[in-house]
Amino acid sequence: QDFLGKQFNFAEFIRNKNQSRLNKIAYIDDIGQLTYADLFAQMEKLGSALIANGVRREERVLLLMQDCNEWPISFLGAMYAGIVPVAVNTLLTADDYAYMLENSRSQTVLISDNLMGTLSKALEIIKKDKVCEVKSVIVPNLTLETIDAFQKSHPEILVQDFSKLISSAKPLESAKTAPDDPGFWLYSSGSTGKPKGTVHTHANPYWTAELYAKPVLEIKEEDICFSAAKLFFAYGLGNGLSFPLSVGATTILMAGRATPDAVFKRFVELKPSIFFGAPTGYSGMLASQELPPKHQVALRMCSSAGEALPREIGERWTKHFGCEIIDGLGSTEMLHIFLSNRPGDVKYGTSGKPVAGYELEIRGEDGEALGDGEIGDLYIKGPSSATMYWNNRDKSRETFQGAWTKSGDKYIRDTEGYYTYSGRNDDMLKISGIYVSPFEVEGTLVQHPAVLESAVIGVLDESGLVKTKAFVVLKQDLEVSKEELQAFVKDKLAPYKYPRMIDFVTELPKTATGKIQRFKLREQEKS
Ligand code: 3SK
User: Ligand 1 centre from 235 Cα, in Å?
Assistant: First the structure.
C-alpha cells in the first residue's frame, strides 16, 4: 500500500486523472448525460453539502438510489469529503433498511424518490423502540407529494432536493485521507444472521481497476460500459464506476430491471462496447425473440460473474455476437474479480486462472494447500480485500485471516491451472448472481398459517442455472396454493428471494435428532 503514498483520496484521484477530458460524457442515464466536468463540480458540492448538513469525516451516509447520474456524484462526493457512503441494495425491505441505518449510524440518506415510502417505514420501525439518528434526506427530482407524505410521519427530518442543495453549496477541498482510510461500505449477506457492513478503503477500488479491469478487460478511454448489475453490488460498482472512471470511459446507467428488452434497447441505441452481466441474464437474452443481430450492436467484450457461467450459454453467445464472455469470480469482500478467464484464453465452464496481483489457495480441511484435482476451500490474498465487517469481530475473524480472505466457495484446479466452481461451504444459494439464504426463505414460509415446516434448496434449471425450490409440509387440514405462498414470501422479503418452485410433501427427510437433511432433497432432485 506504500505505493500510493501517505495521502490518497479515491474521488480526488479520479478527478485528477480525468482533467484532460472534462468535456467528455462520463455517464448517460435514463434522463440525460453528465460530463466529467459536471461530475467533478457536483461531487465537490455534494461533499460540501453533506458537511453543511452536519455529517463529519468518517461518518456514514446511506446511499439507497437506483442507478442514475446522481449515484456516482453521491458516492464520490461523500468520499471526496472523507465521508463514508454505504451503498445498499434498492430491492430490500423496510426491516433491512432499519437494520442498516442503525448498524451504520447514518444520519443522512441519499435516496430515489420512489423509495421514500420504504424509507419512511424503516424509520417507523426504528422509532418504535429507539432514537432515530437520521436528520436529513436528499432526493434527486424530489416531488411535492413525496415531501408531504414523508413529512407527515417524520416532520423532524429535513428533506432536500438534490439539485437545489448542490446549486447552493460551495465547492470543497478534498479530505486528506490515507489509502487505508475507510472509503465506503457494501453489505454482504450470509446464510444466518444480519447482513455484514463490509468496510472498503480508498485504495481498494484503485487496485481492482489496476489489477483486473486494465490488464484483463483491457478497458480503454474509448469504451462505453454497460452493466446489468447495479452500482450497489460490488460487481456493478467496478463495472460502472471504478473501472470506466479510471480510464476516462463512458458508462450507461439504467434505473430499472435489466430485462432482455431494456438491455437490447441500449445495445442498439447507445452501442456499449463492454457489457457486464450474470449468467441468468445471458440465458434470458439468448431465449428472447428480440435478440438483436450482431450488426446492430457494437460489443467488443462481455463479462460474467455472480454465478458460474454454464459452458453452453458462453458458446451460444459467442456464436451469435462473435465476442467472448469473460467469466470470473469475485466477492464483496475482495471488491471485484480475482479469478478470471482471459480474452483469447477462455475455457467455458471454468472461472479461469488467478488475476495477477492476487494469490489463490485451495485448502483442505486441515488448512493445508491442496494440489491439482482436489476440491477444497478457496482463499485469496490481494490488496483489494475489505478491512473488516463493521462491529462484528467474530465474523471478521472467520473471513479475514491475516493477509488471506476466505471466499466461502469450494473450488478445484485442473493440471492446466484453470479453476472450476464446486459449490459453497455454507448453505448460501446464488440466484441470478445474488446471495439468498435458504434459512431466511424457510423462516418466512413457516410464518404462513398453513405451513408446518419447509426446506429450501438450489436446483439446476434446463440452462444449468441455480433456482430456489421449496419443499413444504402443510398443517393438517389446511391448504394454500403455490402462487399464494410465493406471493407471501415476496411480500415479506426482497422479491428476488421467493422460491421459484414449490413441492408440497408429507414429510421432510430428517436425522434422528430432527435436523433437516437438505442433501437428501438435493440428491432426490438430481436423480
Ligand atoms: O459474484 C461475483 O463473482 C462478484 C464479482 C465481482 C464483484 C463482486 C462479486 C460478488
Answer: 5
Would the pLDDT of 387 be above 80? yes
Residue 339 C-alpha cell reads as 479469478
Q: pTM for the full model? A: 0.93
Tell how far the Cα of 307 is from the centroid of ligand 1, in angstroms. Answer: 8
Is the ipTM of this structure higher than 0.95? yes
- Statement: residue 518 has pLDDT above 90: no
Please give the single-letter amino acid code of residue 516.
Answer: I
Q: Pocket residues for ligand 1 (CB within 6 Å)?
A: 234-235, 305-306, 329-332, 336-337, 433
> Higher pLDDT residue, 199 or 422?
199
Positive/negative CA dihedral, 254, 259, 264, 267: positive
**Which residue's CA is minimally distant from atom 1 of ligand 1?**
306
Q: Which of 211, 212, 230, 336 to mutate to test the pocket of ligand 1 (most atoms within 8 A of CB)?
A: 336
Residue 1 has pLDDT above 80, yes or no: no
| Sign (positive or negative) of CA dihedral 70, 76, 82, 83 | positive
Which residue from 14, 51, 56 is spatially nearest to 169, judged by alpha carbons?
51
SS3 assignment, position 173: coil
DSSP state at residue 310: P
The residues near 38 (Cβ < 8 Å, ≥ 6 apart) are 26
pLDDT in tens, 92-132: 999 999 999 999 999 999 999 999 999 999 999 999 998 89
Residues 246, 247, 250, CA angle at the centre, nearest 5°?
A: 100
Pocket-testing residue among 216, 232, 235, ligand 1, by greatest number of atoms within 8 A of Cβ:
235
Query: Could you give the residue ranges of the DSSP H alpha helices within 275-415?
Result: 279-287, 311-321, 393-399
